[in-house]
Amino acid sequence: MTIVLFPGTFDPIHYGHINIATRAADLFDEVIIAVYAREQQNILFSPEERLELVKESFKNIGNISVTTYTGLTVKFARKMGAQAMLRGLRVFSDFEYEFRMALANNRLDPDIDVIALITDEEHTFLSSTTVREIAALGGDVSSMVPEHVKQALQKRFNVLGDDQDIVPLTSLRD
Ligand code: ADP
């Protein structure tokens, strides 16, 4: 039985993440999506909210389960019985980061492999940061996230009103 752990922040989950997890579910027996749950700055959704948004995204896929975790990812992977950790690659700059992380994780636990899937072309530009930024400015994120995530974003930004400093605007500002 091959179990892979797909760790990430998922703030929020978008079609790029969904693409990677769904393809992995065809390749492996079980995919465990692990939402990193330590409280951090500049995070829009709480761990519980992110967990629920991820769960809802995969409710129809039997071999994808979702949980939260804190601490070292390799330790959690071992605890869950995963043989490998799954990551997604978009552009070349992702590779350098993931390469360093994979080597560091390998030093910590050489038995846990890292498997990276290359994203489908249409998701290359997609990141949670971009989604948050577009939603914060009232842009349409329908092609980037499922409907329930879009609604959660709208609700959050309606509540935040002008107090949107939680989303640092980088490049798409008006
Ligand atoms: P982290 O903070 O661990 O990077 P993210 O939620 O940003 O958490 O990303 C989790 C994983 O999903 C990472 O491996 C990241 O490269 C991958 N990922 C993010 N966006 C995309 C995308 N558009 N296509 C494929 N993989 C992606």
Helical amount among residues, as a percent range?
40-55%
What oligomerization state is this entry in?
single chain
**3D shape:** globular
Let me know the largest β-sheet.
Answer: 5 strands, parallel
- The stretches of 5 or more residues where confidence is low (pLDDT under 50) are none
Q: What is the H/E order?
A: EHEHEHEHEHH
Question: Ligands in the structure?
Answer: adenosine-5'-diphosphate
CA(first)-CA(last) distance? 50 Å
Q: Count the helices. How many?
A: 6
Task: Provide the β-strand percentage band.
Answer: 15-25%
Instruction: Provide the structure class.
Output: alpha/beta
What's the short story on this structure?
The protein is α/β, with parallel strands linked by helices and 174 residues long. Helices cover 41% and strands 18% of the residues.
